[in-house]
Q: What sequence folds into this?
């Protein structure tokens, strides 16, 4: 009796890529599907459990065309939750690698580099959680120089590089510097404080919490961003300079960031800004960063209310 | 014959380095004097303020004003020279962005005076003697300029036509600007002149970072052996290159020292320090959230590092004195 | 329990712990710690007057700490025996209880723990199981959200003898919950915590759901499950009944529970596998069906009893199919969940079986054991000459070696299980194993390697695992090299270094050293001893620059026939890849070295004779064949 297989199955190929080994341990409990917020927030067809099944069932074409292959941002919330200890994002990454090799490409709208602005400093290369940008020698307008180039199949469109790029050379449709600044403009009213909330698309899991955001009057401007990492201190300060009384940046709890480290990078940025504000002895902290955990239902209301209260107290004549 | 264009140089709160730069033009200065008249230059020649006061408005063609506005005298001269000049150029980092004197905005004037006049260890018996703005003397009342609580940039007290950055502006750029000015080839008003558009990183030839690199600990330049061919950030040394305007000719980098940011923010950057903070934050290794605070703590004096030359011009400084 | 207490031949010792177990089957000496109750058992009539006057209240563990008890207490009103005891950690010594007890004078503050030793013929271990603490699974919010409770808490809350007299209320506001969710497999079938299935929880959550639904048909109950397992008689029918009653079953393991900070209602986030969609539903209360786990002191007890533990920590049975109630130690039996999670019918069955097995011992004057026991040649044991050694006693997994300096080691035959660890470990070849003597094994080896030994792979297999693996490879028709020559010993611990050296001296092409996976060892720690020795041998052969692969160590279970075949084929490939001359040259090169290491071997009683005899036989066979 011979057990040799001469044709390599899809599952074999995936299992051969590091991280793909535990594919067949999946018993389809669905934890990963509900731990992940992509199905709920972005793409109803998104379902890692089904993708794993497609691989096991040798459904190559379906897997390559599945949004699951492309939308997974490797946040790895599902990995520690998986009772079978399957590194799901690594399996998905393995499928994606095979898909790219087979000529498929990402359906996401990714970031783009404006070479006329890029200085080739490499900040984006270091900032990106996905190693999507890299520096290459390229001739632009007859001059050979270093420029950043983004691998669109790696880019998850988080905007961390957009915030990090000193020269605004990288932008993402919808959340470019210009588009955000345009949204910041709030009609000022003397008596009540104005507040700009930069809210990451992922930190509020519940629809209830999202509706809280809409319950405030016009003096509270909510700007949706893909990740708190998209915001930088300059953006917050520009809002204040424009006459906004306070800036609240909301991101995910550490370890729960949809883009791996976006929220941690924001912690660094905001912590540096705070230190500088302290150093200059400006006691008026009007920029606040909060990290909201998936189980903290209703916290967004507390945070906005307490921020408004502080700003109100500031507005009142001494 | 056409009248020769009139030039003026003035230093306010500054170290005088910008004046030295002008003298470093050397023999080229003689060429300048052939085609232009220097009508006011207290650092080099004996002029009195009254000489300026007696001039007609807009009589001076170009005034190169260096130094920040620290006291009433600086401000008075800024207004005076503005009035008497067709074109007022903020010359050098201090008048451009507050420069090193602008770092004083981290403190209030009382604590600075206390340090300088009361507690400085090098003080002799004069310890505790404070300057008095007006004193009665047998000869009459004599005045000292009043120190301000805030260090301001030139543009914060009067309208400025051009900004020429640098601490000090490098000689070649000064020469280029002189020529452009005298030939009437200056760009639209409000521009930064004598510098490039993009950042220091654009012209820096050091080897850039490798993919996947993140900083775990920052060092100050004197703390480690610096590789002369590798990007400073890749060595964990904070360099202002990513946000700083090029045009200086990279003397610091060539001396194996990171960029200190004296040429100010590059085109498109509104706040040099805040933008540098976001660039630096984005390269910190965040794998271990606990170690993060340690990494951040290894950045000594963030405000003084990120805003070394531009604190007076920064949004946070302006918020403080609003 | 009441029946047991009434039965005159049952001596019930409550509040007593087993400190030490010595001896062997039929002859155990068990030391018990009778803990001080501070109440004289003979005098206490269980009236409870003491408890009613006691001013101290502490959480009652029996009620999962949701109800209080006094410092002088019985855990529940049905306790058997109904004797009060004082919790000295809580007692403030106000002596009100003494007063209340009055003329009975049952309370005695001077009582101390008492150690008693009993002669015991057989031991039945029925220590049960414990519950997984779900607070480590932050995603379910147990301990953080008041209305998330465990199945055991539910058990108390809907029990008519419980703290709420069976009125199910939710902790946040004492209201009766109308919409409940039960979550199955909390901490079980989960590699992060407990790999195994807890066996009874599916039925158990269905039971609770049916119970609640019977009490209040309006209550809305959803059971979140991964698989519903109803494998016994009548179970599926019960599941059907629950469905008919309108209990909802949602396939999908919840990934998160969140709480409304105002209403304290809970939201369960899961995928509905049938829909393939993420769902979020609101509930008043959630019950977590937690995993059954071994008792917290199961490790200590296993060393007191000297019984092995299976992966997961449960006590390991002698044989999973044929002797599930026997421990590997004769005279010790398991009943119920201490051996693995099981429901009531299975526990009762196993308990009855264990009792009858124990009864068999109590009714026998003699006890038959396996004949493969170890025996010491006292004249060869150096301990008799006053030298320190004791390696045999260290090696024995059963404590069956009576070793003391100044006298020859002795094997307590009744305790010996015949693994052969001591035999192989003894550096002076002073111990032999009946039916597996060195001479017998040697004779077999010499016969197997009689012809063209360099083409042969001599495979040492342990009786319980790798021998079974080889067997399975055969019955499954997994092809493997015909050059394999198998040798059976009871345990890898018996595989003496001398055997391996002798195999190479005889010119064997390759040698396989195989046995059980460490956690499967039939002789508790036998495999560990074998593995240690194998590793040492492998280092020695490496130093001798033997071609890698000619000595192979492999741990193969009886279920891994494919692995056995694969390992042998890989070994064959090593030999195939070596030119014959090179192999022969290597064998010759190593011979002096292995011979040196075997210098004492011929002195082992019987070995020289075995060699001579087998040589004659081998000569006889080979000449006969060459003549033919």
A:
């Amino acid at each position: 009796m011979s057990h040799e297989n001469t044709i390599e199955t899809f599952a074999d190929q995936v299992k051969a890529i590091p991280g793909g080994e535990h594919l067949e341990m999946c018993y389809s409990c669905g934890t990963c599907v509900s731990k992940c917020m992509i199905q709920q927030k972005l793409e109803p067809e998104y379902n890692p459990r089904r993708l794993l099944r497609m691989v096991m069932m040798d459904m190559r074409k379906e897997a390559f065309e599945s949004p699951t292959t492309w939308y997974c941002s490797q946040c790895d919330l599902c990995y520690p939750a998986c009772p079978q200890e399957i590194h799901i994002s690594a399996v998905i990454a393995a499928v994606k690698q095979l898909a790219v090799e087979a000529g498929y490409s990402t359906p996401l709208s990714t970031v783009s580099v404006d070479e006329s602005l890029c200085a080739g400093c490499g900040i984006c290369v270091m900032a990106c959680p996905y190693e999507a940008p890299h520096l290459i020698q390229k001739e632009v307008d007859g001059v050979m120089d270093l420029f950043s180039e983004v691998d669109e199949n790696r880019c998850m469109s988080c905007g961390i590089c957009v915030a990090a790029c000193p020269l605004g050379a990288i932008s993402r449709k919808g959340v470019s510097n210009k588009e955000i600044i345009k949204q910041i403009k709030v009609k000022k009213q003397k008596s009540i404080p104005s507040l700009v909330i930069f809210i990451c698309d992922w930190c509020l899991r519940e629809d209830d919490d999202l509706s809280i955001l809409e319950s405030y009057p016009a003096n509270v401007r909510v700007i949706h961003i893909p990740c708190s990492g998209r915001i930088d201190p300059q953006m917050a300060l520009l809002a204040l300079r424009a006459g906004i009384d306070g800036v609240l940046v909301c991101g995910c709890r550490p370890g729960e960031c949809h883009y791996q480290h976006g929220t941690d990078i924001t912690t660094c940025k905001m912590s540096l800004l705070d230190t500088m504000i302290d150093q200059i002895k400006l006691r008026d902290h009007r920029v606040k960063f909060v990290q909201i955990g998936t189980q903290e239902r209703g916290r967004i209301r507390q945070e906005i209310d307490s921020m408004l209260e502080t700003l109100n107290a500031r507005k009142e004549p001494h | 014959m056409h009248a020769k264009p009139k030039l003026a140089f003035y230093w306010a709160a500054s170290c005088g380095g910008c004046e030295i730069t002008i003298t470093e033009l050397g023999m080229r200065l003689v060429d300048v004097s052939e085609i232009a008249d220097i009508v006011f230059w207290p650092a080099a020649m004996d002029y009195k303020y009254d000489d300026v006061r007696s001039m007609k408005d807009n009589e001076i063609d170009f005034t190169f004003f260096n130094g920040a506005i620290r006291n009433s005298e600086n401000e008075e001269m800024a207004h005076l020279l503005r009035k008497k000049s067709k074109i007022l150029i903020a010359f050098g980092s201090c008048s451009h962005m507050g420069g090193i004197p602008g770092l004083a905005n981290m403190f209030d004037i009382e604590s600075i005076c206390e340090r300088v006049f009361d507690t400085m260890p090098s003080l002799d018996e004069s310890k505790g003697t404070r300057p008095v703005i007006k004193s009665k003397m047998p000869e009459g009342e004599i005045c000292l300029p009043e120190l301000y609580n805030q260090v301001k940039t030139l543009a914060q007290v009067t309208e400025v036509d051009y900004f020429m950055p640098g601490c000090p502006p490098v000689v070649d750029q000064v020469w280029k600007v002189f020529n452009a000015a005298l030939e009437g080839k200056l760009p639209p008003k409000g521009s930064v002149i004598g510098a490039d558009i993009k950042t220091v990183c654009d012209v820096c030839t050091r080897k850039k970072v490798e993919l996947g690199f993140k900083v775990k600990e920052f060092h100050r330049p004197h703390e480690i052996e610096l590789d002369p061919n590798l990007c400073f950030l890749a060595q964990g040394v904070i360099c202002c290159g990513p946000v700083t305007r090029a045009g200086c000719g990279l003397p610091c980098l060539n001396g194996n020292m990171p960029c200190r940011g004296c040429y100010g923010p590059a085109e498109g950057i509104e706040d040099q320090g805040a933008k540098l903070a976001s660039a630096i934050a984005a390269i910190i290794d965040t794998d271990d959230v606990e170690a993060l605070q340690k990494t951040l703590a290894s950045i000594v004096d963030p405000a003084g590092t990120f805003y070394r030359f531009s604190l007076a011009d920064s949004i946070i400084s302006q918020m403080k004195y609003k | 329990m009441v029946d047991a207490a009434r039965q005159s031949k049952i001596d019930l010792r409550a509040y007593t712990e087993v400190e030490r177990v010595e001896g062997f089957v039929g002859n155990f000496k068990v030391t018990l710690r009778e803990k001080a109750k501070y109440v004289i058992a003979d005098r206490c009539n269980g009236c409870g007057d003491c408890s009613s006057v006691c001013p101290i209240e502490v959480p009652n563990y029996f009620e999962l700490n949701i109800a209080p008890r006094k410092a002088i207490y019985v855990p529940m009103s049905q306790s058997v025996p109904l004797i009060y005891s004082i919790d000295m950690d809580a007692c403030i010594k106000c002596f009100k209880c003494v007063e209340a007890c009055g003329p009975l004078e049952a309370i005695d503050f001077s009582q101390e723990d008492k150690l008693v030793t009993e002669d015991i013929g057989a031991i039945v271990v029925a220590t049960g199981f414990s519950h997984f603490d779900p607070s480590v699974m932050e995603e379910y919010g147990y301990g953080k959200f008041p209305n998330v409770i465990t199945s055991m808490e539910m058990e108390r809350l809907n029990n008519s003898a419980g703290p709420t007299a069976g009125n199910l209320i939710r902790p946040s506001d004492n209201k009766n919950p109308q919409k409940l969710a039960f979550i199955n497999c909390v901490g079980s079938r989960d590699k992060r915590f407990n790999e195994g299935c807890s066996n009874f929880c599916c039925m158990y959550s269905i039971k609770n759901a049916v119970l609640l639904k019977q009490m209040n048909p309006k209550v809305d109950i959803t059971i979140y499950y991964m698989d519903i397992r109803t494998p016994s008689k009548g179970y599926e029918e019960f599941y059907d009944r629950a469905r008919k009653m309108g209990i909802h079953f949602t396939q999908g393991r919840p990934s998160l529970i969140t709480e409304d900070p105002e209403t304290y209602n809970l939201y369960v986030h899961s995928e509905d596998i049938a829909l393939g969609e993420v769902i979020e539903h609101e509930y008043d209360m959630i019950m977590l069906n937690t995993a059954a786990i071994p008792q917290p002191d199961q490790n200590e007890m296993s060393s007191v009893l000297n019984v092995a533990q299976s992966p997961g920590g449960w006590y390991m049975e002698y044989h999973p199919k044929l002797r599930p109630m026997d421990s590997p130690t004769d005279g010790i039996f398991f009943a119920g969940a201490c051996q693995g999670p099981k429901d009531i019918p299975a526990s009762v069955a196993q308990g009855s079986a264990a009792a009858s097995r124990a009864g068999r011992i109590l009714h026998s004057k003699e006890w038959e054991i396996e004949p493969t026991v170890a025996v010491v040649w006292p004249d060869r044991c150096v301990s008799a000459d006053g030298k320190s050694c004791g390696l045999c006693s260290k090696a024995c997994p059963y404590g069956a070696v009576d070793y003391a300096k100044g006298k020859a080691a002795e094997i307590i035959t009744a305790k010996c299980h015949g693994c052969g660890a001591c035999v192989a470990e003894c550096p002076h070849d002073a111990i032999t194993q009946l039916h597996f003597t060195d001479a017998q094994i040697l004779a077999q080896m010499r016969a197997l390697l009689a012809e063209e030994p360099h083409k042969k792979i001599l495979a040492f297999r342990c009786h319980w695992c790798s021998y079974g693996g080889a067997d399975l490879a055969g019955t499954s028709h997994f092809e493997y090299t015909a050059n394999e020559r198998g040798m059976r010993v009871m345990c890898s611990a018996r595989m003496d270094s001398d055997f391996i050296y002798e195999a190479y001296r005889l010119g064997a092409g390759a040698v396989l050293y195989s046995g059980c996976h460490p956690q499967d060892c039939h002789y508790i720690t036998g495999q560990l001893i074998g593995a240690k020795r194998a590793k040492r041998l492998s280092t020695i052969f490496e130093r001798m620059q033997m071609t890698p692969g000619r000595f192979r160590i492999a741990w193969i279970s009886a279920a891994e026939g494919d692995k056995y075949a694969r390992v042998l084929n890989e070994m064959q490939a090593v030999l195939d890849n070596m030119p014959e001359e090179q192999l022969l040259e290597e064998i010759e090169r190593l011979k002096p070295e292995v011979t040196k290491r075997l210098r004492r071997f011929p002195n082992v009683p019987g070995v020289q004779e075995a060699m001579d005899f087998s040589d004659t036989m081998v000569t006889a066979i080979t000449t006969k064949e060459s003549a033919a």
